[in-house]
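Colleagues,

For the teaching module next term, I've prepared a clean inverse folding example: a structure given as tokens, and then the sequence designed for it. I'd like students to try predicting residues themselves before seeing the answer, so please don't circulate the second half yet.
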């Protein structure tokens, strides 16, 4: 049986081909051998329609991993659970906390887990695996758990709070990434990188000493990044000689353009329907 792994982008802000639909959110399907894992579920049930159009079956998933507890990454869980038995759900316990965004001068916005997602997680038959530390999801596929933060220029990336009044800042402790090894090095999947791209890469490297990076794909959350943070992220990707970078979802158009310019020949476009095969 082949151990090669294919990533398929089921939900993203953009689309790559006719007949598919995009939304503000993210969902990756990982297929390796007999194993199927979903990393995030998008904002709505859109992933079900896109999966059908792409010929991706979601009724025999081995696991669902939630990168963090924001609506645009966890909103599709109820649709999956309604269509087939819900597989184990891997999440950091802080993902279930109430979460708000309070833009300057604007009203607070609830951005946590949708009620339908919370209901699925609260069912007795739903198996929840809390990932405070690095955890193997299926053979060879890992979720980081909580990512240590040491850089001074990386922050959660927005006015995030744990209360509607905006008095308790949310460090988004629940932010986590997935990674796996390939013949050519480590592949890192990012949900939103609220812990920081550099912090995430440093942590994955500490867990896999001596292994190079093969690819970094997903949301880099550089939409509101300072010039220092953007430059440091670009330098980190250069220094690690990452051959493939796919800046998706919350990266931001200006930041993505900077990455494409600063990493010539290494960046690829995201979009629903894109497939990325890796030889393991």
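(Answer key — instructors only)
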């Amino acid at each position: 049986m082949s151990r090669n792994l294919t990533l398929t982008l089921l939900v993203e802000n953009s689309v790559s081909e006719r007949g598919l639909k995009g939304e503000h959110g993210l969902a990756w399907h990982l297929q390796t051998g007999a194993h199927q894992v979903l990393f995030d579920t998008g904002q709505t049930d859109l992933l079900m329609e896109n999966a059908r159009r792409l010929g991706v079956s979601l009724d025999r998933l081995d696991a669902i991993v939630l990168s963090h507890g924001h609506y645009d990454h966890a909103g599709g869980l109820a649709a999956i659970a309604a269509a087939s038995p819900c597989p184990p759900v891997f999440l950091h316990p802080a993902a279930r906390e109430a979460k708000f965004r309070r833009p300057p001068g604007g009203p607070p916005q609830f951005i946590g887990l949708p009620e339908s997602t919370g209901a699925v997680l609260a069912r007795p038959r739903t198996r929840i695996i809390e990932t405070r530390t690095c955890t193997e999801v299926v053979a060879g596929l890992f979720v980081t758990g909580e990512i240590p933060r040491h850089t001074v220029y990386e922050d959660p990336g927005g006015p995030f709070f744990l209360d509607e009044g905006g008095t308790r800042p949310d460090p988004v402790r629940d932010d986590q990434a997935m990674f796996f090894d390939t013949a050519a090095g480590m592949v890192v999947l990012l949900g939103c990188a609220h812990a920081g791209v550099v912090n995430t890469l440093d942590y994955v490297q500490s867990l896999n000493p001596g292994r190079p990076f093969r690819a970094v794909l997903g949301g880099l959350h550089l939409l509101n990044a300072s010039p220092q943070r953007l430059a440091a992220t670009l330098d980190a990707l250069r220094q690690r000689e990452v051959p493939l970078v796919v800046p998706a979802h919350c990266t931001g158009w200006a930041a993505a353009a900077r990455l494409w310019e600063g990493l010539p020949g290494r960046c690829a476009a995201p979009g629903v329907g894109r497939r990325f095969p890796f030889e393991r």
